[in-house]
Design goal:
globular; 2 helices; disordered N terminus; single chain; 7-stranded antiparallel β-sheet; 8-stranded mixed β-sheet; 224 residues; alpha+beta
Amino acid sequence: MGKIRAFAIGILFASSTFATTMVVPGQTVAPVPAAASFPTGATQVFDTGSTTLTPGVGSLVNGVQGEAMVYRTTSGTLDFFYQITNNNTGNSTTDNLRLVTAVNFTGFTTAVGYVTSSGSVAPSDSNRTLSGAAINFDFLNASGQNTLGTKPPSGLGSTSYWLEVDTNATTFCNTCGSLSVQDGGNAAMLAPAPTAVPEPATLGFLGGGLALLGIARLRKRKTA
């Protein structure tokens, strides 16, 4: 059964318009360019629009904006896209971004990549946390310098490429997840995330249970 499931998941992502890389909990991968545009034949179903991230404890971000979009593919599954824009053009220690995180993907299969239709900075790698909830995109060069921050050699108003997370989800919630950046602290915004739907077997049990409950109540009324 496990082999069949793995084969089915492989077909799901292989049939995608994009060349993404599957990532499982606890794994780190090197994202590959997915495409020059968003999914052919897919439908955009949600867009947060450009949103200013709210700094949390320890965060010094100033002028960082994020955007999240959801596309439904021709197979009915959902792809999530994220972009971070660093509007700080001063060469300072603030907005020194190195990590972009999207949640919540617990219980879903994921594949990562990026789209080059807009933006200019590519992630150096991506990983999924052990819990499976978060997908991280790192922005570091070979010397360990941040490439999306405001310190040299880059940053200074940089915008990331569209970061992509393909899933096997078919439903989502507009504000059940978050998009955040790390600069020593965290700054975040609400973002869409996949949501679970009951499996057919579960729905069958639920329907059967409700039917039995109705019969029991009917019998009780007749004997009353």
